[in-house]
Amino acid sequence: MNTAFLVVSFMNLAFVLGLLLNLGGLLTWVERKQGAVMANRIGANRAYIPVPVGRDPNGAGGFKWSKRFTLMGLFHAITDGIKMLTKENFTPPFVDTFVYNLAVWFSAVPVLVTFAVVPFGGPFQPGVMMSEVLTMVGMTGAAASVGGFFGDGVYHMQLANLNVGLLFIFAIGSTGIFSAALAGWSSGNKFSLLGALRSSSQMISYEVFMGISVLGLLVVYGTVDFNEMAQLQQQTWFGVIPKWGVLLQPHMFFVFMTALMAENKRVPFDMPEAESELVAGYFTEYTSMKMGLFMMAEFLEIAVIAGIMTTMFFGAYHIPGVVAATDAMHWAMHPELTPVNAIFGAEVPHALVVVLRVGAFLFKLIFFCWLQILIRWTLPKFRYDQVMKLGWKYMLPLSIVNVIATAAFMYVLGGM
């Protein structure tokens, strides 16, 4: 393992952690502000930083604190964190202490680990990219040094380049059920236990539909590797229409997204919490940052769900007409062309393609975050029997029929 690989891995790790942790905090504000806008309310606007303007009218000579800098309520995310950190970390005497504390980590860690296989920018050459940027600003000596350090090596904008990416997501994501089950059981509270039972049955049920719903897409792609999925979606019909997953399996896009949202246990699938029935569900007995981690995991999962949907159904980091010299599948299909970085056929710097692709991925990610919050504030909460009926009576049969129909279609067609 060379030093350049370690540096790139650290850069990827810093980007992913910075993205998820900051986005998780920001989404707590978006949740309140977007819901307020939809309900014709102001929303979060109380937390502020006082700004001194003018002189004290009483003649004391000091500044008058009369201006409130609210930044549209964004400081609420900071005050929430301060509140959680300063609250009493109380552990009830009737809980199973070890399991009670262990459940907290099962809520947040699997969510963060799951994002490790999501490609957020595609293959890139850090040596070429940084050399171009440094040369542009006149630092030719530094450009030569950086170029020599990284060389022409191609790396992935992805924490873990696994050839079983989707299976990894299913395997790690399914461990989240332990969080609710252990928290509810160890709390020694009947409301927590009921929330844990609801959560277990709901998550196990929708994991079945979630897995079957994407089998049709896997039949089309012929792989579970997220990198290959992303590369395959760069192909087009008639040179214009991209072969994105949402165009290949549009009906399964809605089924898969529904299953993922049910796994996140948010309205309209918030049966495990259901404040009007179960107080706060499986984490009723948690306080301080322990409760904060449960709540933060919910918002982190919004971002992870958005990343998975983007990668599988919306072309990942691809922009139609934008190609990189590192796109192996693209250039394999066009051997008559010289591998270059291009936008609609015009050659451009590699750094520009990388920035555009990361920007495209982030734009799609933010769109799906917005969409999930929109759905949360639009649909009413289902009854528990309606949640189970939707899954077992409608989503499961539709997913099975889709797998059979897709397999038959691909057999007749002879491939993608």
**Averaging pLDDT over every residue, what do you get?**
85
Distance between the termini: 37 Å
DSSP E strands, number: 9
Helix content: 55-70%
Instruction: Indicate the radius of gyration in whole angstroms.
Output: 25 Å
Helix vs. strand class: mainly alpha
Largest sheet, in brief, is:
3 strands, antiparallel
Unreliable segments of 5+ consecutive residues: none
Strand content: 5-15%
Total helical segments: 17
Spatial order of strands in the largest sheet: 7-8-9
The rough form would be described as globular
Counted up, domains total: 1
Describe this entry's structure for a reader:
This protein has helices at residues 3-38, 75-86, 97-114, 126-136, 140-150, 165-173, 177-186, 190-213, 215-221, 226-232, 245-248, 250-264, 275-278, 288-313, 328-333, 350-376, 384-413, and strands at residues 49-55, 63-69, 123-124, 155-156, 236-237, 241-242, 322-323, 342-343, 346-347. The chain is mainly alpha-helical and 416 residues long. The protein has a three-stranded antiparallel beta sheet with strand order 7-8-9, covered by helices on one side. Helix 1 packs parallel to helix 16 (350-376), helix 3 runs antiparallel to helix 6 (165-173) and helix 3 packs parallel to helix 14 (288-313). The chain has one domain (87-122, 157-413).
